[in-house]
Specification:
There is one protein chain. The chain is an alpha+beta fold and about 160 residues long. It has one domain: tt1808, chain A (Alpha-Beta Complex), CATH 3.90.1570.10. About 30% of the residues lie in helices and about 25% in strands. The strands form three sheets. Strands 3-5-6-7-8-9 form a six-stranded mixed β-sheet, with helices on both faces. The chain has a three-stranded antiparallel β-sheet with strand order 2-1-4, with helices on one face. A hairpin with a 2-residue loop joins strand 1 and strand 2. Helix 2 crosses helix 4. The termini are far apart. The relative contact order is 0.14.
């Protein structure tokens, strides 16, 4: 019979996992380690940040969201045209982006998308580097799109190809 591990308080989580890399996310008392980023993942974060900045957003990568004390994800990219809440966002922003990794469980990704929507994020995107597709969370489902924050999604792959030549 499997033994259940005790859940952690937020303070215990921060003390044990708050400075570990790859980052851990706090999921309702459990530490969940993010996937180890690859070259492609890191390049895509930079490309997406550049694309969002061209569209007039302030953007950053790997920023912990402190909207809810029970669930504190670390999305791949966040962006806003508004005020930056320092040191961490405590309310929804305009854009949140998750970049898929090979070992990301779909159930975890969908939970994040639902939560981002419930918190009030305006635009929720999922970028699939393997299939070279961009999805937007809309109406409780992922839908393939050709634009991300008003910018052509194809520009992501053009920029990635230039980086990896």
């Amino acid at each position: 019979m499997a033994t259940l591990l005790p859940t952690l308080t937020l303070a215990e989580f921060e003390a044990r996992f708050g400075h570990e890399k790859p980052y851990y996310e706090f999921w309702y008392g459990e530490p969940i380690q993010k996937s180890r980023p690859s070259w492609i993942h890191g390049l895509l974060q930079g490309i997406l940040i550049g694309l969002l900045r061209q569209a007039g957003y302030k953007a950053a990568s790997d920023v912990k969201l402190k909207v809810n004390t029970a669930f504190q994800p670390v999305p791949d990219v966040i962006a806003t045209k508004g005020h930056i809440d320092l040191p961490y966002p405590t309310k929804a922003l305009e854009i949140v982006i998750e970049i898929l990794s090979d070992d990301d469980p779909m159930s975890r990704l969908l939970t994040k998308c639902r939560t981002y929507q419930d918190w009030g994020f305006s635009e929720i995107y999922v970028v699939d580097p393997t299939a070279r597709l961009v999805f937007r969370w809309s109406g409780h489902q992922l839908q393939e799109v050709n634009l991300i924050a008003g910018q052509a999604a194809s520009s992501i792959w053009t920029a990635l190809d230039k980086e990896i030549e």
